[in-house]
Amino acid sequence: MTGSIPCPALDLERVLALLGHRAARFAPRTVEECTSTNTELVERPPIEDGRIHVLIAERQTAGRGRRGRNWHSWPGAGLTFSTLWRFAPGSAVPAGLSLAAGLALARALEKLDVAGIQLKWPNDVLVHGQKLAGILVELLPMRGRPPAAVIGIGINLRLPAHATVPDQPGGITDLAGQLASPPSREELLARVLAELHDLFEVYASAGFPALRAAWQQRNAFADLPVRISGEGVETRGTCIGVDDDGALLVRGEDGVQRILSGEVSLRVDP
Ligand code: ATP
């Protein structure tokens, strides 16, 4: 990890130019500071205008992970943003959405030549076991409307030397530590949005089953002994992948168990 860098404001015009023919699909907006971009979009969803709304924060004062945990960010050290996806009328509540978002992020990073990308169920992007990015998916209350989801993403680009976070046994990493010339924030954002856009088209028409094999190829814990805890669950076994709903499959002494709740913690069983 290298020292923190001065942080020029994100150039949205540049992001739209890099998005090319997909630019018209997006409505991006930046804020200097907010509590959490997910909270903003969940509590104040923009009106439906057929576009995919994106909120990027230069600073989050209370970035969120799952189960009340925090996403930590430092000025100029990364990207924190959320997108609001609305699904077609009549769609079922999306299954495996968090995994689909992780796969899009993985593909965008692989196209930037980041080697060793792994996906940790349900929502983390690791590089050789170190956490590079996190995802938080929250469904909007439906109230008779088609499903809509806010997908929040935090990516470490250039962490300050003193950066640490709790509860990451494998440690954390940033793109500056993985690439000789890391992308600009504009390029990174445009690539991730483009990948989300393309992959969600597949997801909207064919669902998670169409993406399952690609997710499993990157499964950080494939065939490893794992421990799942939280929400009254305490299970051990071998991680054998995910099913068509995005549920984690763990083979234990009593057969294969399906873990659907994303509100649990998954760890390698030492
Ligand atoms: P578990 O392994 O227990 O399932 P998780 O890592 O999936 O947890 P999330 O709720 O998805 O947990 O993400 C929040 C966690 O991410 C924090 O508790 C912290 O450990 C880690 N974290 C927070 N900020 C960063 C960051 N900038 N880079 C890497 N990891 C971070």
**CATH-scheme architecture of the largest domain:** 2-Layer Sandwich
Low-confidence residue ranges:
1-5
Per CATH, the class of the largest domain reads Alpha Beta
Domain module count: 2
The class by helix and strand makeup works out as alpha+beta
Q: Kindly report how far apart the N and C termini lie.
A: 27 Å
Quaternary structure classification: single chain
What is the alpha-carbon Rg in Å? Answer: 18 Å
Calculate the mean pLDDT score and round it: 92
H/E element sequence: HEHEEHEEEEHHEEEEE
Ligand names: adenosine-5'-triphosphate
What proportion of the residues is helical, as a percent range? 10-25%
Beta strand %: 25-35%
The CATH topology name of the largest domain reads: BirA Bifunctional Protein, domain 2
How would a crystallographer describe the biggest sheet? 7 strands, mixed
User: What is the 3D shape?
Assistant: globular
Helical region count?
5
Strand order of the largest sheet: 1-2-3-7-6-5-4
CATH superfamily of the largest domain: Bira Bifunctional Protein, Domain 2
Number of strands: 12
Catalytic activity: biotin + L-lysyl-[protein] + ATP = N(6)-biotinyl-L-lysyl-[protein] + AMP + diphosphate + H(+)
Enzyme class: ligase
Organism: Pseudothauera nasutitermitis
Domain BPL/LPL catalytic: 25-204
